[in-house]
Each structure stands twice: as structure tokens, then as C-alpha cells.
Amino acid sequence: MKFRTEKNHLLQKLLSKRSFLITTILGASIAMFGFGPCVTETSPNLYPGIQYFVDVANTGLYYPPYGGACPYGGSYYAANSSCQVTNFGAGVLSSAVTYTVGETPPVAGFYYPQPTAGSCPYGGTVDTIYNVPICAVASYSYNNLASTHYFVYAANNGGNSISMYVMDPTSGALTANGTIATGLSPFSIAVDPTGRFVYTSNFAGSCSSPGSISMYAINQSTGQLISLGPDIPAGIEPTSIFVDPTGRFVYTANDGGACGPADDTLSMYTINQSTGVLTHLTAMPARYGGLNVPFAVTVDPSGLYVYAANGNGSSGGSVSEFTINQATGNLTAMGGSPVLTGVSPFPLEITADPTGRFVYATNEDPPTSNDFSMLSINPTNGSLTAMATFPSTGTQPNGFAIDPFGRLAFTPNAGSSNATSYGINPTTGLLTAIGTSGAGSVPFGFAIDPTGRFGFAANEGSNSISAYTINRNTGALGPATPYGAGTGSLSVAVTAGPGRFAYVANLGANTVSYYFIDPNTGWLTQFGSDVTVGTDPSSVVADPSGRFVYVANGADSTVSMFSVTPKSGVLTSIASAIPTGSGPNTVAVDPTGRFAYTANAGSSNISVYTINQTTGALTSQGTTSTTSAPTSVAFDTTGNYLYATEGSGNLVANFSINQTNGTLTSVGTTSTTYNQQAIAVNPVGRYAYSADGSSAAVTEFSVSTSTGVLTPIGTVSTGVGTSQANSIAVHPTGRYAYVANAGTGNVTIYTISSATGLLTQTGLASVGSVPSSVSIDPTGRFLYVVNKGTSGLGTVTIFQINPISGGLSGGTTVGTGDLPVSIFTVR
Questions:
Q1: What is the CA radius of gyration of the chain?
Q2: Alpha-carbon gap, residue 90 to 458, rounded angstroms
Q3: Are 587 and 550 in contact (CB under 8 A)?
């Protein structure tokens, strides 16, 4: 990597000595890899995640993340493969100073004393580290440091703007972060799944003048938005916008209003993966697929199908169905589209659940209906079947948001100015009302943060955002906390941004190493000193919120517990390690973040713990026996079932999870051909896969939607003889899988059939010696493989994932500790 200069290598040495140092800011007020804390960046010429080298005159260079082009301005200079920039923005930069800033007040740190070595022109005291002169600073201004990684955005229909907020990851409280202009009358807002770009559909226009889409990049350090250029055209009156789960395509529903049927269309766009700029695809024929005043659009979680809710029809509302061309993003109407919902002629929202089994339409047309339509998704072809309707407990329900686990739904009710929570039956998809909580006036949109702990309603009538806590045991919303927004706030979105940190358990050193993740390249930069854990750490995991990290220690049969410092990723011990059963191989946290489990090979059981939601401390709930030595555990997407591979019994044990205390109840065992080493569940929830530790094969399973029990549906070779397959990861879209082969030093790449769940091998990628763990970052852009080797220091191999094919590129490596065996990436 060209951007890894000698200065960075020196910095890593410095960081290993001064543990309070965490983030580099190179000659500009921007974080080295786009992560906080950082000095607030104010120049429109600087981009998050890019390492700049700048002189006093604001001229300088940066190394482009993809080489051969300059996506963030400047001219390409082939001699050193850099982008030369003549002006970064006067008044922003003081000097070519490398700053390294500490974590908590007093915010101590240092910078290199340039341009005059031996003096400190920007404050601080002369010091040295490894005979290198530095300027040690006792306290930076804490107010100038970015404080969190979670961002909230509200589209203000009357104010032609977006209100920006920073969300506290502990309380969900919002801090205003400025506004930015949009096109006329923004109606809906969407964030791409990588957390890099934001788009609004702008309603205003006329029958002869279409609406538009505004495009922005997210500053990964501050959360502020950066315009990507002029708005681009949409259809007539675009009311809804949605980014597909792969982050490659955008769709808007253009309802056309009173302009006539010629304007009932969906607009289709591709996303430039480097810049975020949209390209408009070929126009869709009017009324194609039965479109009739389409008011809302969504994409199923696999990224294969598009559904549009139509707001006009003589026999009630309907939903148009389309397949997505995976190469181009163009849509093809399914045979029989649209499907009638049979109720209100005016559905305002449509949402697919995270498991990809159900679609819900919100029908707001008093006094005709105040209800929801539920439709099932055919797993083979994506077609819909109307199943049921449910009454709304509020008046004029508008939005419909589902939590990341597919267990809870939330609707803002414009007529009764409140928000309602519903439970979702994981088997049938049926809704059960839980309760309501007040909102502002005329709430219209609702969004849930990626951890499922907080909800936000956009209130059109009171120009505000209502923030809620979500009780993950009951699903109830806490009292609303209001925050000011712009005029006519209609839509709200939340993002956690790209993956930020990676943690590696080092078996030979009894430590955990931790790294920053570069959001553009996936590159890992180690920082701080390794953290000491128990003896022979075998597994490391973080809870879904990224607030806590747990390490299973195989030799002393304990779990070490840590809190994660939000801005730096630094680990702080919560309490003394807690006992497990004998010889834990794996530690895992359920999707809701309430329970933790260890697979104890030495005692043939699973230890169960509850997680304190404030401190992260574990409390034992006892153990559950398995038939033989368990090697790994995984969960279904709803968090209702746990699966444990039994390495010496050719079995997978199936358990249901008590939703109060996390205890397990056996629902049967599933026999397999080979000894199972590791297991992963497809994020869409219908299939699971296990790596067979004694062979070069993967076993494929279907997941029962009623009982959670796994049923084998096939096996597939890893393509490398009899090499031990010992780790498996499934892509967040559920379209690709990756298996680490310990004996041959490579990774097998598969595509996953959305219709059958079966795997097809598409390639092999070489890694280091004895790959022991494979992990995909939360955005699905990067894959990491820990290479244990046979002795001494190991490595991590870093790949970029092709979103179209699932293929891997890159293959660069960074060092780790002694005998690394497990890796986990965290937002």
C-alpha cells in the first residue's frame, strides 16, 4: 500500500510505547483513516478516509485508494502514484504537522515538531520517543474532537434541507450537527449500506418538470454531509427512495400525482462505488408492471427483487413486483404483477423484513382503512402472495420500520401523533400490538439505529425528531425526547458508517491485538499495545452494538470482558474473567445483544450468560449439555434459535432460546456426514452452512421457519482435496460464502442460490499459512483471514469483495501477535 509511509511505520512503534495515543491527523484536520477522534474538518476540499500530506501553502498530495485516478480532486502524478492538489482550502491548515491525539480529557498527545526540529511552534514540550523528537501536548481542546460514530439525518420537506445529528451510542441522545441544502421539497431520505453516501428524493416539480435526487458523501469523522454535485433528474413527484442492499443501485417511486398515468414510473440508478455519484438508467415505461401512482418502493434483503406500493386502484391497493438485473440494475416486471392487497387504495409505505420472507404495506386512508397488509415472498422467484391485514392501533399510520432482527415493527401515526410498536411472529409474520408512545405533531417517517436499541420519528407538523429507547425484552418504546429539525420533517435515516475496528485473539501470546479499518481500502493499522487476556485465547467477539468485546480463554476456561471506547476502539477490562465450562472453543453473542454463549469442548456443554446492557458484564445462567464436544455456535437471524456444531459427533445441536434469560432448550439434533468445525447462518434466515473439520466440504442446511431445526440439503466440496475446512463466513447480503482451508492456505469462494440456498464454488484465493478464522466487515466490502501459521507471529490477509460476483481482490497482509486464531470486525 503506497499510503503506508515510513512515517506511519514509525508511528506504530511510537504507539506501542505510548498507549494513550490513538489517531493520526496528517497535516490537516482530518483523521488518518476516517475515524474519530479527530479535529473537526471544515474545508470542503478534504474527504474522510483519505490520508493527506500538506504544506504550509495548502498545496500537497494524497495517495488515491484505487490508483491511476484522483476521485477527490487533483492531478495524477505517475512518478509516485499520487494526486497533486494545489489548494486544500485557505485557513484550515496551519503546517505540515502530524498530530496524534489521546482519548479522554485531558486529551494528551503529541505532534512532530516540524518544520523546526527541537522546538514546538504549535505548543507543547520537547520530548523524544526512540530518539525521535516530538512535541508532547498535555491537553488538546476536547470540544474539537469527534465524539461518536452514529449519525442521524432528517429530510425537511418545507425547509429544502437535511438536518444532521450525532447520536450518542449509549443513550441514543442527539446532538445537532448542522444542516445542508437539498433540492425542492425532499420527501424521502436513504443511506447506502456502507454508510458512505446519502440520497434524498425531492418531490417538487410539475407535470412538465420532474423532481430530482440530491447526493451526498458522509464525512466519516464528523457525520457532516458533503454535496456530490448538482441534483440529478428523477420522475414526476418522487415520493420514496431506496438503496439496494449491495449498495450498487438506487430506486425512486414517482407517483405522478395528477399528471396522469404516463408518469407512473420507478426511476433506476447505478452508484459509482468510488464517488457515490448516481447514473440514471434507461427510463422505465409508464404503468410498467401495473404501476399505478407508486408511492413507496423497497428492495428485498437479498437484493434480487423490487416491490412498489401503488396508491390508486379501483379494487384497492396493489404492489408491483420486479426482478433486478444483477449486472445493470434494470428492472423486469414479474408475471402477474401487480398483486392486489385488497384494502386501502392508498398504501403509503412498503417494507421487507430482514429475513426476506414477508413484505408489509402501510395503508393510510381514513375512514376506509387504518391498517397494514402482509404479503409473503416466494423464496424461489420473489413473487408475492397477500396473506393478512392487521388493524393499526393509531390513526393514519405512515411509515413502517422493522428492527434489524425481524422481531419488532414500529409505525408513526400521523392522525394520533404517536408511535406504535408491534411484535412480529418469527414463524407466521403476524403482528401483535405492544404499545404506543407519544410523538410530535404529524409523525411521518420512522427509522431504527443499526443496533436496534433506539428509534426516531420525523414529525412533519412540529418540525422535530422524536427519539426513543427500545426495550429489547418487551419491544416497548420509551418516552419520546424531542429534538428540533427543519420545516416539515418527513423522513429520517440512521447510519453507523463503515466498520471501524478489528480485533484478533493471539493464542500463543495470550493477548488481543486491535486495529483501525481504513473505510476506503479495508487496510488494517494496528494501534496501542496488545491487551492481555486469559491463557490460550481461542475466540473473540463483539456485541452487535460494538460496545463490548468478549474473549474465550481455552486453557483457563474463562471469558474476558471488555468495554470498547467508542472513539478509539481501545479495550478496557470490565471485571475479572468469568468462569466457563472446560475448554471453551468459541464465544458468541446473540443478535439482540442480550445473551452470550461459549461452546465448551472439554466439558461437552454450552455456558449461558446474560449481558448487562449498561456495563457489558456477564452473569452466568448455567450450562446446557451437548452430545459431544461443541466447537462453535451460531444464531438464526431472529435470535430465537442457537446452533452448535459438535466436532466429534457428526452432529449439529438445535436449541431454542428463552427470550427472558437466554437459557437453551433442545429442539433436536441434525446428523451430518462429517465432523463439523464451524457454522454460519445466511442473513436472510432460511439457510445455514457448516465447515466440515475433517474433510474438504461444506454441509448445507435449510432452516425450519416454525421450529428452527436444521435439515441437510446437500454438501459441496471446497475444491482443495482433503484440506481441513475450519471457518466459514456468509456475506451480509446472503449471496456469497467464504471458507478458510487450514491445510492448503487458501479460501474457497461460493455464490449462494437465493432460490435453493445451495453453494456453487466460483474460485480460490491464496492466504497465509494455516488460516484459522475468516470475517467480513459489517459493510460487506472487505474480508479478513487470520493466518495462524505453525509458530511465532501470524498475519491477517485483507481482501476487497466484488459486490457483483463476490470475488476477492487485494490479498495484502499485516502482522499480528503470536499464533492468531480468531478475528472479529466491529462498527
A1: 26
A2: 38
A3: yes
State which H helix or E strand residue 712 sits in.
strand 710-717
pLDDT of residue 719: 80
The cell for 652 is 449439529
- Sequence-distant (6+) residues with CB within 8 A of 367 are none
- Find the length of the chain: 827
Q: Helices marked H in 166-240 — which ranges? A: none
Q: Are 232 and 250 in contact (CB under 8 A)?
A: no
- Residue 794: in which H helix or E strand, if any? strand 793-801
Question: Which of the residue ranges 17-21, 437-441, 506-510, 514-518 would you say has the lowest mean pLDDT?
Answer: 17-21
How many whole angstroms separate alpha carbon 642 and alpha carbon 640?
Answer: 7
- Three-state DSSP class for 113? coil
Judging by DSSP bridges, how do beta strands 464-469 and 676-681 pair with one another? Answer: unpaired
Output DSSP code: residue 519: T
* Dihedral angle, C-alpha 48, 158, 200, 395, nearest 10 °: 120
User: Is residue 680 within 8 Å of 689, Cβ to Cβ?
Assistant: yes
Cα dihedral 654, 825, 544, 820, rounded to 10, equals 50
Question: Which position has the grid cell 512518478?
Answer: 79
Q: Is 246 exposed, middle or buried (0-12, 13-18, 19+ CB in 10 A)?
A: buried
**pLDDT recorded at residue 250:** 95
pLDDT tens figures, 147-192: 345 789 999 988 899 998 888 777 888 888 889 999 999 999 999 8
**Do the strands 265-271 and 664-671 form a parallel or antiparallel pair, or are they unpaired?**
unpaired
Alpha-carbon gap, residue 504 to 523, rounded angstroms: 14
Structural element, H or E, at residue 212: strand 212-218
Residue 116's contacts (CB-CB under 8 Å, 6 or more residues apart) are: none
3-state secondary structure of 263: helix
Return the closest-CA partner of residue 521 out of 812, 282, 254. 812
Sheet holding 75-77, edge to edge: 52-54, 60-62, 82-85, 75-77
pLDDT digits (tens, 9 = 90+) for 728-750: 999 988 889 999 888 888 999 99
User: In a 3-state reduction of DSSP, which class is residue 103?
Assistant: coil
* Number of CB atoms found within 10 A of residue 241's CB: 28
Q: Rounded to 5 degrees, what angle do the CA atoms 483, 402, 150 make?
A: 45
Query: What average pLDDT does the segment 771-776 reach?
Result: 89
> How are strands ordered across the β-sheet holding 605-611?
584-589, 595-600, 605-611, 618-625
514: how many CB neighbours lie within 10 A of its CB? Answer: 25
Enumerate long-range contacts of 641-645, CB under 8 Å, 24 or more apart. Answer: 641/667, 641/703, 641/708, 642/590, 642/597, 642/606, 643/679, 643/681, 643/688, 643/710, 644/599, 644/606, 644/679, 645/599, 645/676, 645/677, 645/678, 645/679, 645/690
DSSP 313: -
> Is residue 435 over pLDDT 90?
yes
Q: Are 215 and 199 in contact (CB under 8 A)?
A: yes
Q: What share of the chain is helix, strand, coil (3-state, %, to 5)?
A: 5, 50, 45
| Average pLDDT for the chain | 78
Alpha carbons 478 and 474: distance in angstroms, whole number = 11
Q: Among positive and negative, which fits the CA dihedral 504, 778, 544, 152?
A: positive
Is 357 within 8 Å of 685 (Cβ atoms)?
Answer: yes
Angle, vertex CA 184, rays to CA 178 and CA 185, nearest 5: 80
CA distance linking residue 311 with residue 373, whole number of Å: 13
Candidates 230, 331, 218; CA nearest to 278 is 230
